[in-house]
């Protein structure tokens, strides 16, 4: 049976919590992001944004409906917030996006209200549904349906696994499509180069697609190598989102 509790010692290392202050911490509920790649909403309010001194205060703020995640009010302090999610503080009109960080693994970056109107989602896999339409299954658990006029010749199906789509939030309208191709801008979401950004220079597939070696070139001319599973496309000619500045 899966435990409903989580000790601070076993919590993901990148959470900004004091490990020896108390024994227990918040365990995120099952949702759009796995435990090792998310931060509970209550911890974000208390330990990241400092809007609350205790979890009780954080739960009161959430209960009053003052926080949105991806354009929807979230009241559960255990709600898992993860990669590319957009957080809105309604009373102060502040907006943040969760991004990979070279040191902190996952962190919040302040963004403008205009940028908070959309989200980038990576295509994890595709399925064909009733009527020959294409369903894109995205990294954050959501799905996007692509209507196909002729199932025998699906010209609308230009999407591939590990491509990125740009969707509006919360309406989830398709705003853009960025292919996994040479010259595209990407951010590394795992491994030793997490949080680094560069242009895709090439790739070598030896085994399955997710483990293919991808080479990226940073603005300083450095070359990074990682596996395809850790590469997230963030734009074609330039990054579509605000990113951390790497010294």
Q: How are the SSEs placed, and which strands pair?
A:
Elements: E1 6-7, E2 24-25, E3 38-40, H1 41-48, H2 55-63, E4 67-69, E5 72-73, E6 80-82, E7 86-89, E8 94-101, E9 105-110, E10 118-128, E11 134-138, E12 143-146, E13 164-168, E14 174-178, E15 185-188, E16 197-204, E17 213-217, E18 223-227, E19 231-235
Antiparallel strand pairs: 1-2, 3-6, 4-5, 4-7, 7-8, 8-9, 10-11, 10-13, 11-12, 13-14, 15-16, 15-19, 16-17, 17-18
Helix pairs in contact: 1-2
Give a written overview of the molecule.
The protein is mainly β and 247 residues long. The protein folds into three domains: 108 residues, RNA-binding S4 domain (Structural Genomics Hypothetical 15.5 Kd Protein In mrcA-pckA Intergenic Region, Chain A), CATH 3.10.290; 62 residues, Ribosomal protein S4, central domain (OB fold (Dihydrolipoamide Acetyltransferase, E2P), Beta Barrel), CATH 2.40.50; 51 residues, Roll (SH3 type barrels). It is 7% helix and 36% strand. The chain has two helices and 19 strands. The strands form five sheets. It has a five-stranded antiparallel beta sheet with strand order 5-4-7-8-9, with no helix packed on it. It has a five-stranded antiparallel beta sheet with strand order 12-11-10-13-14, with no helix packed on it. A hairpin with a 4-residue loop joins strand 7 and strand 8. Helix 1 packs across helix 2. The longest helix has 9 residues. The chain is globular and about 55 Å long. The mean pLDDT is 93.
CATH architectural group of the largest domain: Roll
Q: What's the gyration radius in Å?
A: 19 Å
What's the overall average pLDDT, rounded?
93
Q: How many helical elements?
A: 2
What is the overall shape?
A: globular
Overall number of strands: 19
> Which spans have pLDDT < 50 for at least 5 consecutive residues?
none
**What does the largest sheet look like?**
5 strands, antiparallel
What is the N-to-C succession of helices and strands?
EEEHHEEEEEEEEEEEEEEEE
Strand order of the largest sheet: 5-4-7-8-9
The top-level CATH class of the largest domain is Alpha Beta
| Total individual domains | 3
């Amino acid at each position: 049976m899966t435990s409903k509790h989580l000790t601070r010692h076993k919590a993901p290392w990148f959470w900004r919590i004091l490990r020896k202050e108390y024994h227990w911490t918040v365990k995120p509920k099952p949702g759009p992001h796995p435990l090792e790649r998310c931060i509970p909403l209550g911890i974000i309010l208390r330990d990241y944004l400092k809007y609350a001194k205790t979890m009780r205060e954080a739960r009161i703020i959430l209960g009053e409906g003052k926080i949105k995640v991806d354009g929807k009010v979230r009241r559960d302090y255990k709600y898992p917030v993860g990669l590319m999610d957009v957080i809105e503080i309604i009373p102060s009109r502040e907006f943040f996006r969760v991004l990979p960080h070279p040191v902190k693994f996952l962190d919040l970056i302040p963004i403008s209200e205009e940028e908070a109107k959309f989200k980038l989602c990576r295509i994890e896999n595709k399925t064909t549904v009733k009527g020959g339409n294409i369903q894109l299954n995205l990294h954050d658990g959501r799905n996007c349906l692509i209507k196909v006029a002729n199932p025998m010749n699906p010209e609308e199906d230009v999407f591939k696994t590990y491509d990125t789509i740009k969707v509006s939030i919360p309406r989830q309208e398709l705003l853009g499509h960025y292919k996994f191709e040479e010259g595209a801008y990407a951010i590394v979401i795992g491994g030793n180069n997490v949080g680094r950004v560069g242009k895709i220079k090439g790739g070598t597939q030896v085994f399955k697609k997710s483990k293919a070696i991808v080479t990226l070139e940073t603005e300083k001319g450095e070359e990074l190598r990682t596996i395809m599973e850790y590469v997230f496309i963030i734009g074609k000619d330039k990054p579509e989102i605000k990113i951390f500045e790497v010294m």
